[in-house]
Design brief:
alpha+beta; single chain; about 30% helix; six-stranded antiparallel beta sheet
Length: about 90
Amino acid sequence: MCTNKHYYCMFNGITVTTSDIIDEEYKEYICVRFERPNNNNNGFDFAEIIMPDKKFIKAFGFSEDELYWIESFAADNLLLMWEMAKESKQIA
């Protein structure tokens, strides 16, 4: 569903990327993806959240506490991530 192409940051081994601004059904949003190698060395833990709705669309490997933190992080950084996605849209 989401094509994330903007690197936002990396912390504690978690990479955060965002999509361009998506305009669907008279609504704009971005998709934010959190990803880290999992402890079993057989793939990645990930979570994708739609912002500003704070709606998780996919999640695997993160605990409930981590998902709560991810939601808070996405909300706290939404303005900057949105501006990055908007600048990309203007350049393209």
